Structures are given as structure tokens and as C-alpha cells.
Amino acid sequence: MNADQEPSSAERIAIIGAGSIGRAFALVFARAGHEVRMCETDAATRDEALDRVVESIADLQAFGLCDENTDDIVSRIWIGSDLAAAVADASYVQECVPEDLAFKRKLFGELDSLVPESAVLASSSSAIPASRIADGLDSARRCLVAHPGNPPTLIQVVEVVPAPFTDASFVERACAILGSASLAPVVIRKEVAGFVFNRLQGAVLREAYCLVRDGVAGVEDIDTIVRDGLGLRWAAVGPFETADLNRRGGIAAHARIMGEAYAEMGAERGQHDPWTPDLVAMVEAERRSLLALDKWDDRVRWRDRQIMKLLASRQD
Asked: Each residue of 68-102: b (16+ CB within 10 Å) or e?
């Protein structure tokens, strides 16, 4: 199998680590019909892994999110302690071990000689880039980060973060295999610590801590504002589309009216990142390519209906 081949209907997927992320990935791939082999060296974690997978399937079934027979899904998952047996003939390896650079480098070094040369080697790392994990390894060209939202059984987005030395064919292959399991891969254009998911999450959390520290609001107050305010909108549209739909005229109008205020808020925290005219024009051009202004009213109504659905589900 070549790296640039389309995934077959059933790939052999290797999962290294049977903690919560490893189990979730195993379930996602098994539900998609792939053969999953898990490696876990801790006996207690290994012994409970499949029982925990069964619990997750039951929860999904209870909410109408899975209609396949539990035994059929679990039959596609093997678990053992032998790394070589787990990765033999794998076309995709998802490493799900603790966030320890030395441990990850050692593991990827072992995978060099155990995994077929066509296999993608992906790390679930939350912050360590592939350029640090795989630098100098023979397998470096096929290594990348595939960082999931937690849990991958419910949050479909996966950040695919190649290193500068990662071959583009393996990025494409990773996206194809992840997509075949109903995940939503997003290729990050350059490596940064924390990638995008955690940088956005971290920006909100840093400000939340500051607001508590400064006596502006309490912990539950901030959670309420995000959960029942920002979160409702963000469940339907992201921050750029939120701004685009908040003011008639779109994101350019929003930046013109609110840009200075946001710059002042950032300056209070020692951050000087103003929305320059060139930057706003770049963002506006991309938004207009996605939504023409003559469709703005329709999209606002669509957003509102999505929020109504969320509110209705909360009543249940």
C-alpha cells in the first residue's frame, strides 16, 4: 500500500495506549469498520479497556448516536501488551501515550523498524510538535500530530499537524483515514506550541483566571457566561463567523466598530496585537468567499435556528 492510496473499506489501525483517548479512538475506528489493534503495557488499564469501550457504546446507543450491535463493534478491537503484534501490517498508527517527549521519542524510534514503510505514524500530543518527537528518526517523513478534541467519540475535529519534514502524501493519507471514520481533520499550516485547539482554549482560560484574580467575576459566573452565552453561539458558528453575523455589513463593520475596544482589552494584559487594516481585509476576503453579504440575513436566521435546537435539547 502506498501512502497516497485511498483508504480501503477496512484498514488495520494500531492504537498505542488504552487510556481514555486511546479507547475513544479505538471505538471511532471500529465503528467505521476498521480492524483495531491496541497496545497497552499496564495490565490494569488493559484489562478494563474493552469494558470501558462497551460502556461508551451503551451511552451512544442511549442517545440514538449508535445503532450497531455492540458485539459487532467490539469484535473489531484486539488488545494486548506486545507492541510488534499491535502494529504489524498497520496502515495507520495513533500514539496515545502520556505527554512526555522522551517517552514519545523512544516509542517512535521503536516504531521505525516495526511498522510498514507506508504506514502513517500519528501522535495524539496536545502540545508537543512532531518536529520534536520525530526529528532525526528514519521514519520522520511519515510522522505527524493528529490531536483530537476530547473525547473523539463525540468531538469530531482532529488537528493534523505535520512537521516541516513530513511528506505531504502522508498528511493526505492521514486525513483520508481519519475522514473515513467520520472524524473531521483540519490541517494546521505550521507548527506552533499547543497547535490551534489549545491556543484558543488557553486564551479564554487565561482571561478567565485573570477575571477571577481581579475580582471581576466568580468561577461559576464565568462558566455561566460561556456555557449559556458564548458557548451557545460557538456551538453553531466559530468566532470569525460570530463576528461576521453580529453586525450588518459583516466582519469588516464589526472590526471597524469593535477593533479599538478589543485592542485596549489586549493592552490591559500586555498584549499588543491590533487588527490592522491588512489583517482585517484578509479575514474579510475569506469570509466573503464563504458567505456573500446578500446571503447574510439567511445565515443569521440559520444561526438563530441552530441555537433554538440547542435550547430545545436542553429542555429534554
From this structure: eeeeebbebbebeeebeebbeebbbbbbbbeeeee
Place of cell 466582519: 251
How far is residue 152's CA from residue 147's CA, in Å, rounded to a whole number? 10
pLDDT tens string 49-90: 999 999 999 999 999 999 999 999 999 999 999 999 999 999
Angle at which helices 43-62 and 20-31 cross, to 10° = 50
Which pLDDT score is estimated for 9?
Answer: 64
Closest to 129 (Cα-Cα) out of 108, 113, 152, 150:
108
Cell of 58: 451503551
Selection from 198, 202, 192, 188 nearest residue 131 by Cα: 192
Taken in order of first residue, the domains within the chain and their CATH numbers are 12-187 (3.40.50.720), 198-315 (no CATH)
Confidence label for 5 from pLDDT (cuts 50, 70 and 90): very low
Cell of 121: 505514524
DSSP state for residue 105 in the 8-state scheme: H
Secondary-structure breakdown of the chain: helix, strand, coil percentages, each rounded to the nearest 5 = 55, 10, 35
List, in order, residues 6 or more apart from 85 with CB less than 8 Å away: 37, 39
pLDDT (tens digit per residue) in 237-291:
999 999 999 999 999 999 999 999 999 999 999 999 999 999 999 999 999 999 9
Q: Which strands, in side-by-side order, build the sheet including 157-162?
A: 77-80, 35-39, 12-16, 92-95, 120-123, 143-148, 157-162, 184-187
